[in-house]
């Protein structure tokens, strides 16, 4: 049986090497993301034939496997995914679980269909599609479609004595305190909010060991919003966290705009992750007018579905 490994800080370079072989627009494919969510999703991994497979198991749910990551090698050669998929299927048989493979883009879907014709039923994992925007659009907020956003920012600037500040590890305590104020008010309303808090704590407690950049908004010296992200591809950044004190009107909007303006002007696109099927979050992300969605898929065995 495959020996699944835990995701730990000392494995950061190894895992990142596979993630970086081919630019993936999928927000989940950074070491930071895997590490901060590793407890909630019992995030494990295995390296097979010089390819990486992430093997998460959300609390109470089945374990799944990603389509092999890093099959495009540094020397330009391409690894054979067939024996790797077969080893994954054997793992599911040995554990008595139904095979569940997560595919991170259309290319992975095409490769799986070509390698195993008629074997898998592939469905879209809509609640986990990533929203991608132009950095310039969310920085300038030009035109009628962003008129409301621009008004929120202008009102914030008039109401408050504020400043943008680049974050350092020393700001971690303030960020956790800000998040916890929101958490206290929402903990009985939002499913899985405890897991989000756990991920936030993991990120800030390990800030110095992760390749992340943060920014915050202060009003009269008090932190009222923060955002954290990192490069995902050469021209795309990903935002892992963004929180604000909603008692300050427009705090979320100005945090979004200022973080991109100060930290990500060398990038063309920004991935602001998924909406997880939460209606309010979906409405908010759609209101910023994404230029495209990063689609994700789930593959199950065709025979299992028919049975």
Automatic annotation (TrEMBL):
Gene3D superfamilies: 3.40.630.30. PANTHER family: DUF2156 DOMAIN-CONTAINING PROTEIN (PTHR41373), PHOSPHATIDYLGLYCEROL LYSYLTRANSFERASE C-TERMINAL DOMAIN-CONTAINING PROTEIN (PTHR41373:SF1). Residues 25-299 form the Phosphatidylglycerol lysyltransferase C-terminal domain. This is DUF2156 domain-containing protein. InterPro entries: Acyl_CoA_acyltransferase, LPG_synthase_C, UCP018688. It holds the Pfam family LPG_synthase_C.
């Amino acid at each position: 049986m495959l020996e699944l490994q835990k995701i730990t800080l000392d494995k950061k370079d190894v895992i990142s090497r596979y993630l970086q072989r081919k630019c993936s627009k999928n927000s989940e494919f950074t070491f930071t993301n895997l590490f901060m969510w590793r407890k909630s999703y019992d995030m494990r991994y295995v390296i097979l034939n010089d390819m990486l497979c992430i093997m998460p198991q959300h609390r109470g749910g089945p374990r799944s496997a990603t389509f092999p990551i890093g099959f495009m090698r540094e020397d330009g050669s391409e690894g054979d995914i067939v024996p790797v998929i077969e080893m994954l299927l054997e793992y599911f048989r040995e554990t008595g679980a139904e095979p569940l493979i997560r595919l991170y883009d259309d290319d992975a879907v095409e490769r799986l269909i070509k390698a195993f014709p008629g074997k898998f039923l592939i469905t879209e994992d809509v609640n986990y599609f990533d929203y991608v925007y132009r950095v310039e659009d969310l920085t300038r907020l030009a035109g009628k479609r962003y008129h409301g956003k621009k008004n929120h920012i202008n009102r914030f600037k008039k109401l408050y004595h504020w400043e943008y500040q680049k974050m350092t590890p020393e700001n971690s305590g303030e960020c956790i305190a800000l998040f916890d104020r929101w958490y206290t008010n929402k903990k009985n309303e939002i499913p899985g909010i405890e897991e989000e808090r756990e991920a936030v704590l993991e990120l800030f407690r390990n800030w110095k060991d992760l390749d992340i950049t943060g920014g915050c908004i202060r009003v009269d010296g008090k932190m009222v919003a923060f955002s954290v992200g990192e490069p995902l591809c050469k021209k795309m950044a990903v935002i892992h966290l963004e929180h604000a004190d909603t008692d300050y009107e427009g705090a979320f909007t100005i945090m979004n705009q200022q973080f991109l303006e100060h930290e990500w002007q060398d990038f063309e696109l920004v991935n602001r992750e998924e909406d997880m099927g939460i209606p309010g979050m979906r409405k908010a992300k759609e209101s910023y007018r994404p230029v495209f969605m990063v689609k994700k898929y789930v593959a199950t065995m065709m025979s299992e579905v028919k049975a």
